[in-house]
Each structure stands twice: as C-alpha cells, then as structure tokens.
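During the no-cost extension, the postdoctoral fellow (Dr. R.K.) reprocessed legacy sequence entries with the updated structure-token encoder. One reprocessed record is reproduced below for audit purposes.
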Amino acid sequence: MILAKVHTTPKQRDEFRLLVAIRFACLMALAKGHTDPMDCPRVQVRCAELVKHFAYHHPSAAFYRQFIRHTGELGLNFCLRFTEPQQGLYGKVMVWRNDSQAVTNVHPLHPLHTMTPAAPVGR
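Re-encoded structure tokens follow.
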C-alpha cells in the first residue's frame, strides 16, 4: 500500500500528503455520520485537490500501479480509484468504504435452511 511505504521522491511525497488528507477526511466523514464518504464536502474537496494535482503532474509509478485503472486500498476501511481523463485535463476520483459496515446495494444472502428428510411413501 502506498500509505505504508517510504517515499523517496518529491512526487511520491506529494501524493502521500494528498492521500493522507483524503483518508483523514473519510475518517472524519464517518465520525460525522456519513455512510458514503463521497457525500461529505470535505472528502470532495480533498479529492478535487488530487484531481488538480494530476492535471499538472504525472503520477508516480507506485500510484499508477495501485490506483489507476483499478481500485487500491486507502487504509484498512477505504478504497480509492483514479480514472484518467478521456479528454481534457481532469480525471475522476472515487472513494468508498470496503468494511463490513459499508452500505451496499446487494441483497444479503440468507443461509439455506436444512430440510428434514421426508418419510418414504408407503411405510
């Protein structure tokens, strides 16, 4: 995970600072009662800062491997994905929870009830 590695270049340190700011904003959003971190204005502002940063700077190889074109961990409870722009300068950042408390749109599966075997007919 990019948040746990030693950062040796200025580019990696800038990305680290932006990712930590997003993670902290997500934690604050949960503390304030938001179930989806992207509903919080603070998270939206921090994500906009990351998007603006990548409009003018190329991502490091570590960031590219972890967050671009697929989802990467942002700490234990959050995921982040950066989508590169198809045209123009600005991409898109999405953050969401990935823990057991996260609200999902998937219907929960219920365990199958075991059926007692039926008695044979005619006995």
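Residues 9-97 form one domain. The mean pLDDT is 82. The remaining legacy entries will be reprocessed before the final report is submitted.
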